[in-house]
Amino acid sequence: MDAIILQILNGLDKGSAYALIALGLTLIFGTLGVVNFAHGALFMIGAFCAVTLQRLLNLSFETIDPDKTDFLGQPLKVKTPYVESWFGPDVGATIIDWSVPLAILFAIPIMLVIGFVMERGLIKHFYKRPHADQILVTFGLAIVLQEIIKANFGANPIQTPAPELLSGVATLMDGVVYPVWRIVYFCFAALIIGGVFAFLQFTTFGMVVRAGMADRETVGLLGIDIDRRFTIMFGLAAAVAGLAGVMYGPINAPNYHMGMDFLVLSFVVVVVGGMGSLPGAVLAGFVLGILESFASTTWATTTIPGINQIIIYLVAIIILLTRPRGLMGRAGVMED
């Protein structure tokens, strides 16, 4: 029972990342009809927003400490972060320690701007083009963004540790221990997903967007600037992917190819859930995350070697053969 609970928790942890990325992908496809292969790069940029803030907070200046000497007996130079000199040693150290959660505030405006620029500068020119053209141009953009990150941050993973208070393990039911930050990530994902659904369901803006997703032409005929609202939704989708990347840094150290690692799996999640279906994307993300977790157990990999690498694709094949529109997809989508 302990092993089952642990694998479910692992699946929810991984499924949270799948669901958040797939949610943004579905928002973009549902509103703009664009297959955005650059969405994984937005996840990566979010993670490197946390890296950037961490480096900014650790900027320091050197002072000479007369009470400390080196091995030659000379006064020792000590590096003091600017935040510690501005706010005091204790408060400054706390700010540095909590750099990853603080990066949420840092990443939101950056991701919104990147999303707006992508949509206005590139994506809007491919609305009426075939999906193959959209995939090619957004995949090319993803490679460009990946190489920019590699050129500026290097090819090696960069550690972004969780705050010390949240870096330990928690004892759950039946004595199962689990990393606190992974629990925090799942709760954060649930909060973001709930916020997106509440925004679309209970705000006037969200209701107009949902109407535009169902019938864009009719909403436009009512005098509503639906294109501007869809541009805002693209920015929000970019922000969701970025925040998913920010909080994922302590789980998996950010590197320049992490966006590509999640991109293909997230598209599989979207297809399994149903193209254009937000609930389907979230459901499929968690279900496939749990399946992948159980497929990674020693028993599963011993019984069927490599099953952990292909389980998601096997499920996708079965779903597409039996229900081409996905678990919760609309009738007629991906069925012609």
UniProtKB/TrEMBL annotation:
Residues passing through the membrane, by range: 16-35, 42-61, 98-118, 183-209, 229-250, 262-291, 303-321
GO molecular function terms attached to this record: transmembrane transporter activity
Entry GO CC: plasma membrane
Keywords: Amino-acid transport, Cell membrane, Membrane, Transmembrane, Transmembrane helix, Transport
Keyword Membrane appears in the UniProt entry: yes
Family annotation (InterPro entries): ABC_transp_permease (IPR001851), BCAA_transport_permease (IPR052157)
Pfam families assigned to the protein according to its UniProt record, in alphabetical order: BPD_transp_2
Membrane-related topology note: Multi-pass membrane protein
Tagged with keyword Cell membrane: yes
Coiled-coil features, chain-numbered ranges: none
Localisation per UniProt entry: Cell membrane
Any single GO BP term: amino acid transport
Family from the record: Belongs to the binding-protein-dependent transport system permease family. LivHM subfamily.
Designated name of the protein: Amino acid/amide ABC transporter membrane protein 1, HAAT family
Species for this entry: Lutimaribacter saemankumensis
Lineage: Bacteria, Pseudomonadati, Pseudomonadota, Alphaproteobacteria, Rhodobacterales
